[in-house]
C-alpha cells in the first residue's frame, strides 16, 4: 500500500513520463511559504531555458510577501515575458517532485 508521499511521487513520475513522450517544453512551478519559483525546462537534456521567482530584483520591489497572490501574478508575468524572449509559445505544466 502506498503512503501519501509515495502516491504523490508516483503521480508526478507518471506525468513527467507522458511529457517526455510528447517531447514538450515543461513549466515547473514550486511554491513555498515565502517564495514562488517558475522554470521553463527543455524537453531534451533538461536545460532551464527561462526562470523567474520572487527572489528576482524586478519582482522583489513589487511585492511585499513572496508567497501571496500578487507575487504569483508578478512571477507569472515575468516567466511569460522571458519565455517569449526565448521563443517559447507553449509549455506543459509539470508536477514538482
Strand content: 15-25%
Please write the string of helix (H) and strand (E) elements: HEEEHHE
Q: Percent helix among the residues?
A: 40-55%
Give the count of helical stretches: 3
> What shape does the CA trace take?
flat
Radius of gyration, in angstroms, nearest whole number:
15 Å
Query: Strand order across the biggest sheet?
Result: 3-2-1-4
Structural class label = alpha+beta
Which regions have little confidence, pLDDT < 50, spanning 5+ residues? none
Calculate the terminal CA-CA distance, rounded to whole Å: 20 Å
What number is the mean pLDDT? 88
Characterize the largest beta sheet: strand count, sense, and whether it forms a barrel.
4 strands, mixed
Let me know the number of strands.
4
Mind explaining what this structure looks like?
The mean pLDDT is 88. Helices cover 41% and strands 22% of the residues. With 97 residues, it is of the alpha+beta class. The protein has 3 helices and 4 strands. Strands 3-2-1-4 form a 4-stranded mixed β-sheet. It has helices at 4-22, 57-60, 69-85; strands at residues 26-31, 36-41, 48-53, 92-94.
Summarize the structure.
By secondary structure, the protein is of the alpha+beta class. It has three helices and four strands.
Detail the topology: elements first, then pairings:
Blueprint: H1 4-22, E1 26-31, E2 36-41, E3 48-53, H2 57-60, H3 69-85, E4 92-94
Parallel strand pairs: 1-4
Antiparallel strand pairs: 1-2, 2-3
Core attributes:
flat, four-stranded mixed beta sheet, alpha+beta, 3 helices, single chain, 41% helix, 97 residues, 4 strands, 22% strand
